Every structure is written in structure tokens, then in C-alpha cells.
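Encode chain A's predicted structure.
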Amino acid sequence: QVQLQESGPGLVKPSQTLSLTCTVSGDSITTSYYTWSWIRQPPGKGLEWMGVIVNDVSTYYSPSLKSRTSMSRSTSKNQFSLQLSSVTPEDTAVYYCNARLGANYWGQGTQVTVSS
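Encoded structure for chain A:
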């Protein structure tokens, strides 16, 4: 069974780039047919899908975030990452990484606050 763990700074200043990493254990990030996603939940709001890496390393992003979002994976570290540029306080949220292969697997989530 896949386990996921998010890591990264809990506080980011406005206009900076938010960088998060999801460490995968229990399976290889190169295993076929997995999708690897980032999803966030702003305070008091629902879940927002941000983007996905599919196993042929294609990436797809939410249209509303596409201009600021980049996702990548590291096969040597068995990790995938998120970068969100030009952050504002509206990017404050709990950020989750997710893996899907039939079943959904979730990290515990990491709180990121954008504030000066």
C-alpha cells in the first residue's frame, strides 16, 4: 500500500514561490498507471484540484492555476513536487498529495500560510 508524506515550509511570503515535496513509500513512483496529484483546501472552502502527473510524465494543471504551477517527479528519490509561484494570501491552504491506482491514497496534508 502506498504511503505519502508532504514536506515543505509552513510559511511563505507573498510573491515568493511555494515549494512542496511528496515522498512516496510502499511502491515506486514509476509503477505504471498511477497518477500523482496535488490538491489543496483553503480555510472554510472545499478541495481544489491543482494538477496531476501521469506515469508517462505528462502533467496537467488546473486552468485557474496553470500559469503559476509546475509539477515534477524524481525517480531517484521516489518523490514528486509542486511549485506555485507568485503566491498571495489566497494561496493559504492545507496542501495534500494524492496517488490514485483504483484506490485513492492521501498524505496527511501540510498547512501552508502565505503572509508577510
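The chain has no helices and eleven strands.
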